[in-house]
Amino acid sequence: MVSKTFGAAVLGVDARTITVEVNVTQGQHFFLTGLPDAAVKESEHRIESSFKSLGYFMPRTKVVVNLAPADLRKEGSAYDLPIALSILKASGQVVAEALDQYLIMGELSLDGILRPIRGVLPIAIQARKEKLKGVVLPMENAHEAAIVNNLEVIGVETLSDAIGFFNGEKTIAPLTADTRDVFQTKANHYDFDFRDVQGQENIKRALEIAAAGGHNAIMIGPPGAGKTMLAKRLPGILPPLTLNEALETTKIHSVAGKLGSNATLLTSRPFRSPHHTISDVALVGGGGHPQPGEISLAHNGVLFLDELPEFKRTVLEVMRQPMEERRVTISRARISIDYPANFMLVASMNPCPCGYYNHPEKECVCAPGVVQRYLSKISGPLLDRIDLHVEVVPVTFDEMTAQRKTESSADIRARVVQARERQLERFKSLSGIYTNAMMPSNQVKEVCSINEAGRMLLKTAMERLGLSARAYDRILKVSRTIADLSGADDIRIEHLAEAIQYRSLDRDGWAG
Which string of DSSP letters, residue by residue, matches 174-243? Predict the structure, then answer.
């Protein structure tokens, strides 16, 4: 007898439907076809042990399990549940007439308990696309799948629960969630607030500009000046996630297995801060079984690289293309996968190995030439792609103990949102362009036009600082963002002057 149900394979951040076919006939042995990896092949032993613990049996005749399409490699242990249910139906041990109306995934333990799996959100979205009645998943994954509307989500804790549901012996109420209600309830909750930061008004201003235009930024200053503290508060002044952005971000974290049990929709912008020992594969994604890297986990949020010169040069260089294209492509012999990577890069660094070059009070003990060598660990092309270079000076005792009230993240975010709305209106006719930082070069001349006085100021800055053509574009984009924050239609000379001052690392003689 032949039985059929459906599973799914996750490719990139999307899922593809897999048909699980089982035929039990006369003969011997268990055959598993359809390019299964080792984890899928081992399902035979997990399934057999689960059957015995529940009083069922593995057929001792010929059992052929086919995972179609057969030319697509199947990976992971999540096919245990659909294979087990199909074997039970094909061998006549259960009726399960509705088995082919659901997409079923789940890993079995030896006693029949179901363990959670990865990539549930794209799997549920695919089930709705296929117009299936619903999905049957481990209970710990059900809340995540319930984000998808118009889909029956059945959470089961054991193989016995799944059998009872399909045999009509056990009623399991579908789990439902109002996606918009969940999104609105949890939106705008942040652990850190700029209200807690005393002083550093110039750094707050630079981060406000970065948030308003989606610009990359680097902070240079001595240890303990507050670089990490300021960076952690940046997501709180970014515009709130839209529902589509939240779904897209949640899909990536679901595929990477970063959501945790009973997780639902991500409602705040991600903040990723990998250690400087990270490998290039862990940063951009890939591996033997391709997974999204840190730059994709930071999609629609912030990627913070603390102590930038301590990262391996090869790790930093692989970011250059994703920073421009806002996606990363992982190519293999049989398949090519795209992961979105639209992130804001915020980096921090000490000005020298000892950390006290240009310090107002402490003396730098580095030998001549060491500061320049330390800075040269970061390549010119990477620095060109960072719009704002900000020098962070330690806060004085009087500033730290001052009782004056400082602006909250909500106050700053309100100005950022207004600037972003101006940009959305400006680029509404351009597909995929939402911020000034994303503006293509052919739009810069049109959008960032300057008068003669501004042109002369920029010419002088270019000549004295030795700026590249890319840096020229970056200055114009930042000045456009500053104008948007002030509500100005045109870029004025004061906007240009402020943008130019954020090219600290381009100055001749900065590092001695």
Answer: PP---HHHHHHHHTT--S--GGG--S-HHHHHHHHHHHHHT--EEEE--TTSSHHHHHHTGGGGSPPPPH
pLDDT in tens, 272-287: 999 999 999 999 988 8
Domain spans of the chain?
2-177
State the Cα–Cα distance between residues 164 and 56, nearest whole angstrom. Answer: 13
Q: What is the rounded CA–CA span in Å between residue 415 and residue 83?
A: 54
pTM over 0.90: no
Confidence of residue 90 (pLDDT cuts 50, 70, 90): very high
Q: Is the pLDDT of residue 508 over 60?
A: no
- Rounded Cα distance between 256 and 351, Å, is 35
Token reading at 430: 């351009």
Burial degree of 18 (CB within 10 A; 0-12, 13-18, 19+): buried
The CATH architecture that domain 2-177 belongs to is 2-Layer Sandwich (3.30)
For residue 313, give Cα distances in angstroms to 278, 294, 354, 375, 378.
11, 17, 20, 12, 7
Distances (CA, A) of 274 to 193, 234, 302, 373: 22, 16, 11, 24
> Which pLDDT band holds residue 510 (cuts at 50, 70, 90)?
low
